[in-house]
Amino acid sequence: MIGFLAFAFAVIGLIHLYLWKRLVRDTTRPGRWRRAGSVAAAVLAVLVPTTLIGTRAGHWWLAWPGYLWLAVMFYLIVVLVALEIPMLVAKLWLRHRRRAAAAAVPHAPEPALVGAAGPAVETPAGEVPLDHSPDRRLLLARGVAIFAGLTAAGISGYGIRTALGPPQLDRVAIPIARLPRTMDGLRIALVSDIHLGPMRGLSHTERIVNMINNMDADIVAVVGDMVDGTVEELGSAAAPLQRLRSRYGAYFVTGNHEYFTEYQEWVDEVARLGLRPLRNERLEIEGLDLAGVNDIAGREFDDGPDFAKTFDGRDPNRPTVLLAHQPVQAVDAAKYGVDLQLSGHTHGGQMVPWSVLVRLEQPIVSGLGTVDGTKVYVTNGAGFWGPPVRVGAPPQVTLVELNSQ
């Protein structure tokens, strides 16, 4: 843990050093504005780890300023890095023009290169090279900084509105080869990653419960990451879950965030609210097996997934729907002939282009796919973690309809 924290803090420091270089040093001359910008960059650099540590310690007031800056910081990095290539191309082109102009004058010496803060160098013709004019460099740097700042703020604003808005209702029909005709059209209300915590509370839960109850589903599946805090802190925010309605009941499996707090307290609380925790177990619902496994993070607490126990004695002729928080768990589920796995965890990437990195860890980021012959549906989740921002991955509650073939 110490090594991980040291690495994380080093990365945060380097990111803010880069932002300081591009947004402060390159855009100001030495003086009070540069000093003020340097102080601001240092404060923001400290704010990020302070927020990550402080919110875990119960100082939830840090969440809004810290996580909002994290979102803006992310998109500043994305925009500025994307601009590095065209800026480099422009500098090379200007340098080529300067050398071509110098070569046109017989026996003209090659002008020396100078740093950003150095004096302008004159060409043989007595002109200041375009790529070495301090005023031109300052103007270019300020233009890039303004563009990056406005773009990052605009994207973050759009993402905040999306994240804090109501989840969209998606409907997906999934054919299951072994599903009995009598269960054709079985409807499962799927929700994941509600993430009750510093920035989402009672009203968030009430909105989700109302959406699910309006679906008139046969089964409700809550597939992990319901909370970011203890029962004492968030029990009242989770209370509306006791109003969930469905024909065959509501079921719950743990996500990795349940293990960040007192997971057993939440398992007990969920059961008290009327949801049945499926903890490496399977039950029969008419002609269907509904199973649930613990999240991978539970292994650190001797409470990880146990597929052998879950599917021990299973009738291979019965179709199986598995609730598992992480899509990657389908690799193990496929070994037991699971027909369909319902998952969350990825948030659909939450903030484009972060979804590219999520794909390195999970076989499916959002929607329906297949892993080793097992169908896997991944919902974007109804909440968010960290920055209250969603870009390219709106919050989602899904109505899954199973069809016989």
UniProtKB/TrEMBL annotation:
It holds the Pfam family Metallophos. Residues 186-348 form the Calcineurin-like phosphoesterase domain. This is Metallophosphoesterase. InterPro entries: Calcineurin-like_PHP (IPR004843), Metallo-depent_PP-like (IPR029052), Metallophosphoesterase_sf (IPR051158). CDD domains: MPP_YkuE_C. Gene3D superfamilies: 3.60.21.10. The chain crosses the membrane at residues 6-24, 36-55, 67-89, 139-160. Keywords: Hydrolase, Membrane, Metal-binding, Transmembrane, Transmembrane helix. It comes from the Bacteria.
